Amino acid sequence: MSLIFTRALASHSRNTKRSLVAEVALSHLDPIFAKTQQAIQQARQTQSPVEWQLLTKKGLILLDSILHEERTINLTDLDLPSANLVTSGKSGFIEEIHKRRGVPVITGFAQTQTTHDFPNPNWGVLLRIDQADVLPIIHGKIFQLGAGISLVLLPLIGIIFWSARKVESEHQQVMAAETKYREIFENAPDGIFQSTPSGQFISANPAMAKILGYDSPQMLIQSMSDLAQQFYVNPNQRQELLQTLKARGSINNFEFEFYRRDGKIRWASGNIRAVQDRSGTIQHIEGTMVDITDRKETTNRLYQLQAQLLAEQEQRTLQVEAELDKSKAALITQAKLATLGQLSGSIAHELRNPLGAMRNAIFLLKRRITNSDNQTIRYLDMLEEEVHNSDLIIQGLLEVARGKEPIKQNISLQSLLEKVLKEKPFPETVTFHVELESEPFIIWVDPQQFIQVLHNVLHNARQAMESQGHISIHAQHCSDISEIEISDTGPGIAEENRAQLFEPLFTTKAKGTGLGLTLCREIIERHGGTILSMDKQDGGASFQIRLPVYHPPT
Questions:
Q1: pTM over 0.70
Q2: Which of 511, 498, 521 is closest to 452 using CA atoms?
Q3: How many Å apart are CA 168 and CA 131, to the nearest integer?
Protein backbone atom coordinates (compact mmCIF):
# COMPACT_ATOMS: atom_id res chain seq x y z
CA MET A 1 0.00 0.00 0.00
CA SER A 2 2.75 2.44 0.87
CA LEU A 3 4.55 1.40 -2.35
CA ILE A 4 1.53 2.60 -4.29
CA PHE A 5 1.69 5.89 -2.41
CA THR A 6 5.46 6.17 -2.95
CA ARG A 7 5.19 5.39 -6.68
CA ALA A 8 2.41 7.93 -7.08
CA LEU A 9 4.56 10.47 -5.27
CA ALA A 10 7.65 9.58 -7.29
CA SER A 11 5.82 10.08 -10.58
CA HIS A 12 5.66 13.82 -9.85
CA SER A 13 8.53 16.26 -10.12
CA ARG A 14 11.27 16.66 -7.53
CA ASN A 15 9.81 20.07 -6.75
CA THR A 16 6.64 18.37 -5.60
CA LYS A 17 8.66 16.10 -3.33
CA ARG A 18 10.55 19.08 -1.96
CA SER A 19 7.29 20.84 -1.30
CA LEU A 20 6.41 18.02 1.05
CA VAL A 21 9.31 19.05 3.20
CA ALA A 22 8.38 22.71 3.02
CA GLU A 23 4.83 24.04 2.59
CA VAL A 24 2.38 21.35 1.60
CA ALA A 25 -0.16 22.46 -0.97
CA LEU A 26 -3.38 20.58 -1.77
CA SER A 27 -2.93 21.28 -5.46
CA HIS A 28 0.37 19.36 -5.39
CA LEU A 29 -0.67 16.30 -3.38
CA ASP A 30 -4.39 15.92 -4.24
CA PRO A 31 -3.81 14.00 -7.51
CA ILE A 32 -1.26 11.82 -5.73
CA PHE A 33 -3.75 10.78 -3.02
CA ALA A 34 -6.58 10.30 -5.53
CA LYS A 35 -4.44 7.99 -7.68
CA THR A 36 -3.28 6.12 -4.60
CA GLN A 37 -6.85 5.69 -3.30
CA GLN A 38 -7.97 4.23 -6.66
CA ALA A 39 -5.00 1.88 -6.86
CA ILE A 40 -5.52 0.52 -3.32
CA GLN A 41 -9.23 -0.04 -3.87
CA GLN A 42 -8.49 -1.98 -7.04
CA ALA A 43 -5.89 -4.05 -5.21
CA ARG A 44 -8.32 -4.81 -2.40
CA GLN A 45 -11.20 -5.44 -4.81
CA THR A 46 -13.51 -3.30 -2.72
CA GLN A 47 -15.09 0.14 -2.63
CA SER A 48 -14.61 0.48 1.13
CA PRO A 49 -12.67 3.62 2.01
CA VAL A 50 -9.00 3.43 2.99
CA GLU A 51 -8.11 6.65 4.73
CA TRP A 52 -4.83 8.32 5.60
CA GLN A 53 -3.71 11.68 6.76
CA LEU A 54 -0.40 13.51 6.31
CA LEU A 55 0.69 15.09 9.60
CA THR A 56 3.45 17.19 11.00
CA LYS A 57 5.50 15.80 13.82
CA LYS A 58 3.37 17.80 16.25
CA GLY A 59 0.13 16.22 14.99
CA LEU A 60 -1.13 18.96 12.71
CA ILE A 61 -3.22 17.41 9.91
CA LEU A 62 -1.91 18.79 6.63
CA LEU A 63 -3.98 16.69 4.23
CA ASP A 64 -6.98 14.32 4.58
CA SER A 65 -7.39 11.72 1.81
CA ILE A 66 -11.17 11.46 2.17
CA LEU A 67 -12.10 15.07 2.66
CA HIS A 68 -9.62 16.12 -0.04
CA GLU A 69 -8.98 19.46 1.54
CA GLU A 70 -6.30 21.22 3.45
CA ARG A 71 -6.71 20.90 7.19
CA THR A 72 -5.58 23.07 10.06
CA ILE A 73 -6.85 20.70 12.76
CA ASN A 74 -4.45 19.23 15.25
CA LEU A 75 -5.13 15.51 15.73
CA THR A 76 -4.22 15.80 19.40
CA ASP A 77 -7.22 18.11 19.89
CA LEU A 78 -9.62 15.37 18.75
CA ASP A 79 -11.08 12.91 21.22
CA LEU A 80 -9.49 9.89 19.54
CA PRO A 81 -7.28 7.15 20.98
CA SER A 82 -5.06 7.37 17.88
CA ALA A 83 -3.93 10.86 18.97
CA ASN A 84 -1.70 9.15 21.53
CA LEU A 85 0.13 7.36 18.70
CA VAL A 86 1.01 10.64 17.04
CA THR A 87 2.15 12.39 20.21
CA SER A 88 4.32 9.42 21.18
CA GLY A 89 6.18 9.63 17.86
CA LYS A 90 6.44 5.84 17.78
CA SER A 91 5.09 3.54 15.13
CA GLY A 92 2.12 1.44 16.19
CA PHE A 93 -1.60 0.76 15.76
CA ILE A 94 -4.79 0.96 17.80
CA GLU A 95 -8.41 -0.16 17.43
CA GLU A 96 -11.01 2.62 17.64
CA ILE A 97 -14.40 3.79 16.35
CA HIS A 98 -14.37 5.97 13.28
CA LYS A 99 -15.42 9.51 14.23
CA ARG A 100 -17.59 10.20 11.18
CA ARG A 101 -18.82 6.75 10.07
CA GLY A 102 -19.21 5.17 13.50
CA VAL A 103 -17.60 1.85 12.43
CA PRO A 104 -14.69 -0.04 14.05
CA VAL A 105 -11.34 0.64 12.34
CA ILE A 106 -7.67 -0.16 12.80
CA THR A 107 -5.56 3.01 12.90
CA GLY A 108 -1.81 2.78 12.24
CA PHE A 109 0.84 5.51 12.53
CA ALA A 110 4.40 5.65 11.22
CA GLN A 111 7.10 8.32 11.35
CA THR A 112 9.01 8.85 8.07
CA GLN A 113 12.71 8.08 7.95
CA THR A 114 15.41 10.26 6.41
CA THR A 115 16.08 9.41 2.74
CA HIS A 116 17.62 11.14 -0.18
CA ASP A 117 14.26 12.54 -1.21
CA PHE A 118 13.00 13.15 2.34
CA PRO A 119 15.87 14.43 4.47
CA ASN A 120 13.59 15.90 7.11
CA PRO A 121 12.00 13.21 9.38
CA ASN A 122 9.29 15.55 10.57
CA TRP A 123 6.43 13.99 8.66
CA GLY A 124 4.06 11.22 9.66
CA VAL A 125 1.36 9.16 7.97
CA LEU A 126 -1.80 7.99 9.75
CA LEU A 127 -3.66 5.07 8.12
CA ARG A 128 -7.20 3.83 8.90
CA ILE A 129 -8.65 0.53 7.60
CA ASP A 130 -12.12 -0.95 8.36
CA GLN A 131 -11.87 -3.97 10.64
CA ALA A 132 -14.66 -5.62 8.70
CA ASP A 133 -12.66 -5.43 5.49
CA VAL A 134 -10.63 -8.43 4.39
CA LEU A 135 -6.88 -7.72 4.73
CA PRO A 136 -5.20 -10.85 3.30
CA ILE A 137 -5.09 -9.11 -0.12
CA ILE A 138 -3.08 -6.22 1.38
CA HIS A 139 -0.97 -8.71 3.30
CA GLY A 140 -0.16 -10.59 0.11
CA LYS A 141 0.65 -7.45 -1.79
CA ILE A 142 3.06 -6.23 0.89
CA PHE A 143 4.68 -9.65 1.14
CA GLN A 144 5.27 -9.76 -2.65
CA LEU A 145 6.87 -6.28 -2.74
CA GLY A 146 9.59 -7.24 -0.27
CA ALA A 147 12.70 -5.04 -0.18
CA GLY A 148 11.63 -3.00 -3.17
CA ILE A 149 9.47 -0.80 -0.98
CA SER A 150 10.66 2.73 -0.42
CA LEU A 151 12.12 3.41 3.01
CA VAL A 152 10.03 6.54 3.30
CA LEU A 153 7.05 4.63 4.82
CA LEU A 154 8.75 1.39 5.84
CA PRO A 155 7.69 1.59 9.54
CA LEU A 156 4.07 2.03 8.43
CA ILE A 157 4.32 -1.04 6.21
CA GLY A 158 5.42 -3.01 9.26
CA ILE A 159 2.34 -1.81 11.14
CA ILE A 160 0.08 -2.76 8.26
CA PHE A 161 1.77 -6.12 7.89
CA TRP A 162 1.41 -6.83 11.64
CA SER A 163 -2.16 -5.51 11.71
CA ALA A 164 -3.07 -7.51 8.65
CA ARG A 165 -1.87 -10.74 10.25
CA LYS A 166 -3.67 -9.92 13.49
CA VAL A 167 -6.89 -9.00 11.73
CA GLU A 168 -6.57 -12.05 9.48
CA SER A 169 -6.26 -14.26 12.58
CA GLU A 170 -9.20 -12.53 14.22
CA HIS A 171 -11.09 -12.73 10.97
CA GLN A 172 -10.55 -16.49 10.81
CA GLN A 173 -11.82 -16.80 14.39
CA VAL A 174 -14.82 -14.64 13.57
CA MET A 175 -15.48 -16.66 10.42
CA ALA A 176 -15.28 -19.91 12.41
CA ALA A 177 -17.66 -18.54 15.03
CA GLU A 178 -19.92 -17.15 12.33
CA THR A 179 -19.98 -20.54 10.59
CA LYS A 180 -20.81 -22.25 13.87
CA TYR A 181 -23.61 -19.86 14.73
CA ARG A 182 -24.80 -19.78 11.14
CA GLU A 183 -25.26 -23.56 11.31
CA ILE A 184 -27.19 -23.14 14.55
CA PHE A 185 -29.24 -20.36 12.96
CA GLU A 186 -30.00 -22.36 9.83
CA ASN A 187 -30.78 -25.66 11.59
CA ALA A 188 -32.58 -24.40 14.70
CA PRO A 189 -36.05 -25.99 15.10
CA ASP A 190 -37.44 -22.70 16.43
CA GLY A 191 -38.06 -19.67 14.27
CA ILE A 192 -35.38 -16.95 14.64
CA PHE A 193 -35.93 -13.48 13.23
CA GLN A 194 -34.98 -9.83 13.20
CA SER A 195 -37.42 -7.08 12.26
CA THR A 196 -37.54 -3.31 12.08
CA PRO A 197 -39.76 -1.30 14.44
CA SER A 198 -41.79 -0.22 11.41
CA GLY A 199 -42.75 -3.83 10.69
CA GLN A 200 -40.44 -5.47 8.11
CA PHE A 201 -38.37 -8.63 8.50
CA ILE A 202 -34.62 -8.03 8.34
CA SER A 203 -33.62 -11.68 8.59
CA ALA A 204 -35.22 -15.03 9.31
CA ASN A 205 -34.05 -18.62 9.49
CA PRO A 206 -35.59 -21.54 7.53
CA ALA A 207 -37.63 -22.65 10.55
CA MET A 208 -39.26 -19.22 10.71
CA ALA A 209 -40.14 -19.39 7.03
CA LYS A 210 -41.54 -22.90 7.45
CA ILE A 211 -43.72 -21.86 10.42
CA LEU A 212 -45.25 -19.09 8.30
CA GLY A 213 -45.66 -21.38 5.27
CA TYR A 214 -42.94 -19.94 3.00
CA ASP A 215 -40.44 -21.94 0.96
CA SER A 216 -37.44 -19.83 1.96
CA PRO A 217 -36.46 -16.98 4.29
CA GLN A 218 -35.89 -14.74 1.27
CA MET A 219 -39.48 -15.26 0.09
CA LEU A 220 -40.73 -14.50 3.61
CA ILE A 221 -38.71 -11.29 3.87
CA GLN A 222 -39.84 -10.10 0.43
CA SER A 223 -43.53 -10.91 1.08
CA MET A 224 -43.90 -9.33 4.51
CA SER A 225 -43.95 -5.54 4.35
CA ASP A 226 -46.33 -4.77 7.26
CA LEU A 227 -46.20 -7.23 10.17
CA ALA A 228 -49.07 -5.60 12.05
CA GLN A 229 -51.51 -6.21 9.19
CA GLN A 230 -50.05 -9.26 7.43
CA PHE A 231 -48.71 -11.24 10.39
CA TYR A 232 -50.82 -10.50 13.47
CA VAL A 233 -54.47 -11.58 13.58
CA ASN A 234 -54.95 -8.75 16.10
CA PRO A 235 -52.92 -5.81 14.69
CA ASN A 236 -53.06 -4.00 18.05
CA GLN A 237 -50.79 -6.66 19.54
CA ARG A 238 -47.90 -5.34 17.45
CA GLN A 239 -48.22 -1.90 19.03
CA GLU A 240 -48.63 -3.44 22.49
CA LEU A 241 -45.44 -5.45 21.88
CA LEU A 242 -43.47 -2.34 20.88
CA GLN A 243 -44.68 -0.47 23.97
CA THR A 244 -43.70 -3.38 26.24
CA LEU A 245 -40.26 -3.68 24.61
CA LYS A 246 -39.64 0.06 24.96
CA ALA A 247 -40.54 -0.10 28.65
CA ARG A 248 -38.96 -3.43 29.62
CA GLY A 249 -36.54 -4.27 26.83
CA SER A 250 -37.74 -7.86 26.41
CA ILE A 251 -40.77 -10.10 26.79
CA ASN A 252 -40.93 -13.87 27.25
CA ASN A 253 -43.68 -16.35 26.40
CA PHE A 254 -45.58 -13.75 24.41
CA GLU A 255 -48.57 -15.64 22.96
CA PHE A 256 -50.46 -14.36 19.94
CA GLU A 257 -52.38 -15.49 16.87
CA PHE A 258 -50.77 -15.12 13.45
CA TYR A 259 -51.63 -15.69 9.79
CA ARG A 260 -49.84 -18.32 7.74
CA ARG A 261 -49.21 -17.76 4.06
CA ASP A 262 -52.27 -19.93 3.24
CA GLY A 263 -54.50 -17.71 5.41
CA LYS A 264 -54.86 -20.21 8.24
CA ILE A 265 -54.80 -18.82 11.76
CA ARG A 266 -52.25 -20.36 14.14
CA TRP A 267 -50.98 -19.72 17.68
CA ALA A 268 -47.37 -18.79 18.48
CA SER A 269 -45.24 -18.12 21.53
CA GLY A 270 -42.24 -15.82 21.29
CA ASN A 271 -39.27 -14.67 23.34
CA ILE A 272 -38.48 -11.20 22.00
CA ARG A 273 -35.99 -8.45 22.84
CA ALA A 274 -35.36 -4.94 21.58
CA VAL A 275 -31.93 -3.70 20.50
CA GLN A 276 -31.78 -0.04 21.54
CA ASP A 277 -29.26 2.75 21.17
CA ARG A 278 -28.05 4.93 24.04
CA SER A 279 -31.07 7.21 23.73
CA GLY A 280 -33.45 4.27 24.15
CA THR A 281 -34.62 4.27 20.54
CA ILE A 282 -35.34 0.75 19.25
CA GLN A 283 -32.96 -0.05 16.37
CA HIS A 284 -34.39 -3.48 15.62
CA ILE A 285 -36.29 -6.34 17.24
CA GLU A 286 -35.01 -9.91 17.46
CA GLY A 287 -36.24 -13.10 18.99
CA THR A 288 -37.42 -16.67 18.62
CA MET A 289 -40.87 -18.05 17.87
CA VAL A 290 -42.51 -21.48 18.05
CA ASP A 291 -45.87 -22.67 16.75
CA ILE A 292 -47.97 -23.75 19.76
CA THR A 293 -51.25 -24.36 17.90
CA ASP A 294 -51.27 -28.12 18.59
CA ARG A 295 -50.46 -27.52 22.26
CA LYS A 296 -53.10 -24.81 22.44
CA GLU A 297 -55.73 -27.02 20.83
CA THR A 298 -54.81 -29.90 23.12
CA THR A 299 -55.07 -27.62 26.14
CA ASN A 300 -58.42 -26.29 24.93
CA ARG A 301 -59.67 -29.83 24.37
CA LEU A 302 -58.57 -30.73 27.88
CA TYR A 303 -60.39 -27.70 29.25
CA GLN A 304 -63.48 -28.64 27.24
CA LEU A 305 -63.30 -32.24 28.44
CA GLN A 306 -62.80 -31.03 31.99
CA ALA A 307 -65.79 -28.70 31.66
CA GLN A 308 -67.81 -31.50 30.09
CA LEU A 309 -66.84 -33.90 32.88
CA LEU A 310 -67.74 -31.29 35.49
CA ALA A 311 -71.07 -30.69 33.75
CA GLU A 312 -71.73 -34.42 33.53
CA GLN A 313 -70.71 -34.84 37.15
CA GLU A 314 -73.01 -32.00 38.15
CA GLN A 315 -75.81 -33.49 36.06
CA ARG A 316 -75.18 -36.89 37.56
CA THR A 317 -75.18 -35.34 41.03
CA LEU A 318 -78.52 -33.70 40.27
CA GLN A 319 -79.85 -37.01 38.99
CA VAL A 320 -78.63 -38.83 42.08
CA GLU A 321 -80.13 -36.15 44.30
CA ALA A 322 -83.38 -36.40 42.33
CA GLU A 323 -83.34 -40.17 42.67
CA LEU A 324 -82.59 -39.83 46.37
CA ASP A 325 -85.46 -37.37 46.72
CA LYS A 326 -87.66 -39.75 44.77
CA SER A 327 -86.56 -42.68 46.91
CA LYS A 328 -87.09 -40.61 50.03
CA ALA A 329 -90.56 -39.64 48.85
CA ALA A 330 -91.25 -43.28 48.00
CA LEU A 331 -90.12 -44.37 51.45
CA ILE A 332 -92.32 -41.72 53.04
CA THR A 333 -95.23 -42.85 50.88
CA GLN A 334 -94.58 -46.47 51.74
CA ALA A 335 -94.43 -45.54 55.40
CA LYS A 336 -97.72 -43.71 55.04
CA LEU A 337 -99.24 -46.63 53.19
CA ALA A 338 -97.93 -49.06 55.79
CA THR A 339 -99.45 -46.95 58.52
CA LEU A 340 -102.63 -46.64 56.46
CA GLY A 341 -102.69 -50.39 55.96
CA GLN A 342 -102.33 -51.05 59.66
CA LEU A 343 -105.09 -48.55 60.41
CA SER A 344 -107.38 -49.79 57.67
CA GLY A 345 -106.87 -53.39 58.67
CA SER A 346 -107.68 -52.68 62.29
CA ILE A 347 -110.60 -50.32 61.72
CA ALA A 348 -112.18 -51.98 58.65
CA HIS A 349 -113.91 -54.59 60.77
CA GLU A 350 -114.86 -52.02 63.42
CA LEU A 351 -116.36 -49.66 60.83
CA ARG A 352 -118.01 -52.15 58.54
CA ASN A 353 -120.08 -53.77 61.32
CA PRO A 354 -121.74 -50.49 62.36
CA LEU A 355 -122.13 -49.50 58.71
CA GLY A 356 -123.78 -52.86 58.02
CA ALA A 357 -126.14 -52.35 60.92
CA MET A 358 -126.95 -48.85 59.67
CA ARG A 359 -127.61 -50.18 56.17
CA ASN A 360 -130.00 -52.86 57.52
CA ALA A 361 -131.79 -50.32 59.71
CA ILE A 362 -132.30 -48.01 56.77
CA PHE A 363 -133.67 -50.90 54.74
CA LEU A 364 -136.18 -51.82 57.49
CA LEU A 365 -137.22 -48.21 58.02
CA LYS A 366 -137.95 -47.78 54.34
CA ARG A 367 -140.23 -50.81 54.41
CA ARG A 368 -142.27 -49.46 57.33
CA ILE A 369 -142.63 -45.89 56.06
CA THR A 370 -145.42 -45.19 53.62
CA ASN A 371 -144.71 -43.65 50.29
CA SER A 372 -146.58 -40.53 51.39
CA ASP A 373 -143.83 -39.60 53.84
CA ASN A 374 -141.47 -38.29 51.15
CA GLN A 375 -139.40 -36.14 53.48
CA THR A 376 -138.45 -39.12 55.68
CA ILE A 377 -137.67 -41.26 52.64
CA ARG A 378 -135.35 -38.50 51.30
CA TYR A 379 -133.44 -38.42 54.58
CA LEU A 380 -133.09 -42.19 54.58
CA ASP A 381 -131.72 -42.06 51.00
CA MET A 382 -129.12 -39.53 52.12
CA LEU A 383 -128.08 -41.81 55.01
CA GLU A 384 -127.88 -44.79 52.67
CA GLU A 385 -125.64 -42.81 50.23
CA GLU A 386 -123.25 -41.74 53.00
CA VAL A 387 -123.06 -45.32 54.28
CA HIS A 388 -122.18 -46.39 50.74
CA ASN A 389 -119.50 -43.65 50.49
CA SER A 390 -118.05 -44.72 53.83
CA ASP A 391 -117.88 -48.28 52.59
CA LEU A 392 -116.05 -47.10 49.45
CA ILE A 393 -113.51 -45.23 51.57
CA ILE A 394 -112.84 -48.35 53.61
CA GLN A 395 -112.56 -50.43 50.45
CA GLY A 396 -110.11 -47.89 48.96
CA LEU A 397 -107.96 -47.91 52.08
CA LEU A 398 -107.77 -51.69 51.97
CA GLU A 399 -106.87 -51.75 48.27
CA VAL A 400 -104.11 -49.15 48.68
CA ALA A 401 -102.68 -50.89 51.71
CA ARG A 402 -102.82 -54.46 50.42
CA GLY A 403 -101.14 -53.75 47.04
CA LYS A 404 -102.50 -56.71 45.13
CA GLU A 405 -100.20 -57.83 42.30
CA PRO A 406 -101.80 -57.51 38.84
CA ILE A 407 -102.70 -60.49 36.70
CA LYS A 408 -101.91 -59.03 33.29
CA GLN A 409 -103.23 -59.96 29.89
CA ASN A 410 -103.50 -58.42 26.43
CA ILE A 411 -106.82 -56.63 26.13
CA SER A 412 -108.22 -53.82 24.00
CA LEU A 413 -108.47 -50.37 25.52
CA GLN A 414 -111.86 -49.86 23.81
CA SER A 415 -113.46 -52.73 25.75
CA LEU A 416 -112.21 -51.38 29.09
CA LEU A 417 -113.53 -47.88 28.31
CA GLU A 418 -116.91 -49.33 27.36
CA LYS A 419 -117.16 -51.17 30.70
CA VAL A 420 -116.30 -48.01 32.66
CA LEU A 421 -118.89 -45.91 30.83
CA LYS A 422 -121.48 -48.67 31.08
CA GLU A 423 -121.08 -49.12 34.84
CA LYS A 424 -121.30 -45.39 35.53
CA PRO A 425 -122.69 -43.49 32.54
CA PHE A 426 -121.73 -39.85 31.99
CA PRO A 427 -124.35 -37.16 31.39
CA GLU A 428 -124.99 -35.97 27.85
CA THR A 429 -123.35 -32.63 28.74
CA VAL A 430 -119.97 -34.42 28.82
CA THR A 431 -118.67 -35.34 25.34
CA PHE A 432 -115.89 -37.78 24.46
CA HIS A 433 -113.29 -37.88 21.68
CA VAL A 434 -111.29 -41.12 21.45
CA GLU A 435 -108.31 -41.25 19.05
CA LEU A 436 -106.43 -44.55 18.93
CA GLU A 437 -103.37 -45.31 16.83
CA SER A 438 -104.80 -48.70 15.91
CA GLU A 439 -108.02 -50.57 16.46
CA PRO A 440 -108.13 -52.61 18.48
CA PHE A 441 -105.54 -50.84 20.66
CA ILE A 442 -104.06 -53.66 22.73
CA ILE A 443 -102.54 -53.02 26.18
CA TRP A 444 -101.01 -55.49 28.65
CA VAL A 445 -102.80 -54.92 31.97
CA ASP A 446 -104.88 -56.46 34.74
CA PRO A 447 -108.38 -55.62 33.42
CA GLN A 448 -110.03 -55.12 36.82
CA GLN A 449 -107.27 -52.94 38.20
CA PHE A 450 -106.95 -50.84 35.03
CA ILE A 451 -110.73 -50.31 34.95
CA GLN A 452 -110.34 -48.82 38.42
CA VAL A 453 -107.60 -46.48 37.10
CA LEU A 454 -109.81 -45.34 34.19
CA HIS A 455 -112.77 -44.90 36.51
CA ASN A 456 -110.82 -42.70 38.95
CA VAL A 457 -109.23 -40.49 36.26
CA LEU A 458 -112.48 -40.05 34.30
CA HIS A 459 -114.50 -39.49 37.49
CA ASN A 460 -112.03 -36.74 38.56
CA ALA A 461 -112.36 -35.11 35.11
CA ARG A 462 -116.16 -35.19 35.37
CA GLN A 463 -116.09 -33.59 38.81
CA ALA A 464 -113.55 -30.93 37.73
CA MET A 465 -115.77 -29.94 34.76
CA GLU A 466 -118.90 -30.06 36.97
CA SER A 467 -120.47 -32.59 34.58
CA GLN A 468 -120.17 -30.26 31.58
CA GLY A 469 -117.24 -30.25 29.15
CA HIS A 470 -115.14 -32.39 26.83
CA ILE A 471 -112.85 -35.36 27.53
CA SER A 472 -110.18 -36.48 25.00
CA ILE A 473 -108.49 -39.87 25.04
CA HIS A 474 -105.45 -40.36 22.78
CA ALA A 475 -103.41 -43.60 22.64
CA GLN A 476 -100.32 -44.63 20.66
CA HIS A 477 -97.50 -47.18 20.75
CA CYS A 478 -93.96 -45.72 21.04
CA SER A 479 -91.40 -48.47 20.61
CA ASP A 480 -91.85 -50.71 23.69
CA ILE A 481 -94.22 -48.30 25.48
CA SER A 482 -97.97 -47.77 25.19
CA GLU A 483 -98.94 -44.14 25.87
CA ILE A 484 -102.48 -43.17 26.92
CA GLU A 485 -103.31 -39.50 27.46
CA ILE A 486 -106.59 -38.43 29.07
CA SER A 487 -107.39 -34.69 28.98
CA ASP A 488 -110.36 -32.57 30.07
CA THR A 489 -111.52 -28.98 29.67
CA GLY A 490 -111.81 -28.26 33.37
CA PRO A 491 -109.93 -25.57 35.35
CA GLY A 492 -106.74 -27.64 35.48
CA ILE A 493 -104.42 -28.35 38.40
CA ALA A 494 -102.84 -25.55 40.39
CA GLU A 495 -99.04 -25.51 40.32
CA GLU A 496 -98.78 -25.59 44.13
CA ASN A 497 -100.87 -28.79 44.25
CA ARG A 498 -99.04 -30.67 41.49
CA ALA A 499 -96.27 -32.08 43.72
CA GLN A 500 -98.77 -33.56 46.22
CA LEU A 501 -101.29 -34.75 43.66
CA PHE A 502 -100.57 -38.49 44.13
CA GLU A 503 -99.95 -38.34 47.90
CA PRO A 504 -102.29 -40.40 50.11
CA LEU A 505 -105.24 -38.50 51.64
CA PHE A 506 -104.44 -35.30 49.70
CA THR A 507 -107.52 -33.75 48.12
CA THR A 508 -108.89 -30.34 47.16
CA LYS A 509 -112.48 -31.57 46.97
CA ALA A 510 -115.06 -30.98 49.68
CA LYS A 511 -116.11 -34.65 49.63
CA GLY A 512 -112.90 -36.20 48.30
CA THR A 513 -111.06 -39.03 50.07
CA GLY A 514 -107.57 -38.29 48.64
CA LEU A 515 -107.11 -41.96 47.72
CA GLY A 516 -108.16 -42.14 44.04
CA LEU A 517 -104.96 -40.90 42.35
CA THR A 518 -102.81 -42.60 44.99
CA LEU A 519 -104.48 -45.90 44.08
CA CYS A 520 -103.99 -45.14 40.36
CA ARG A 521 -100.25 -44.60 40.85
CA GLU A 522 -99.90 -47.78 42.92
CA ILE A 523 -101.66 -49.83 40.24
CA ILE A 524 -99.71 -48.34 37.32
CA GLU A 525 -96.35 -48.74 39.07
CA ARG A 526 -97.17 -52.38 39.86
CA HIS A 527 -97.69 -52.74 36.10
CA GLY A 528 -94.13 -51.36 35.54
CA GLY A 529 -95.42 -48.05 34.17
CA THR A 530 -95.84 -44.41 35.18
CA ILE A 531 -98.63 -41.90 35.48
CA LEU A 532 -97.91 -38.17 35.26
CA SER A 533 -99.86 -34.96 35.39
CA MET A 534 -99.13 -32.94 32.21
CA ASP A 535 -99.46 -29.23 31.48
CA LYS A 536 -101.97 -28.17 28.82
CA GLN A 537 -101.45 -24.95 26.92
CA ASP A 538 -105.17 -24.47 26.29
CA GLY A 539 -106.16 -25.17 29.93
CA GLY A 540 -107.60 -28.18 31.69
CA ALA A 541 -105.94 -31.21 33.25
CA SER A 542 -104.10 -33.96 31.39
CA PHE A 543 -102.78 -37.30 32.66
CA GLN A 544 -100.30 -39.43 30.74
CA ILE A 545 -100.18 -43.16 31.43
CA ARG A 546 -97.16 -45.13 30.11
CA LEU A 547 -97.25 -48.95 30.15
CA PRO A 548 -94.78 -51.52 28.85
CA VAL A 549 -95.79 -53.45 25.73
CA TYR A 550 -96.04 -57.21 26.10
CA HIS A 551 -93.48 -59.27 24.18
CA PRO A 552 -94.19 -62.99 24.18
CA PRO A 553 -91.19 -65.19 25.05
CA THR A 554 -89.32 -66.57 22.05
A1: no
A2: 521
A3: 10
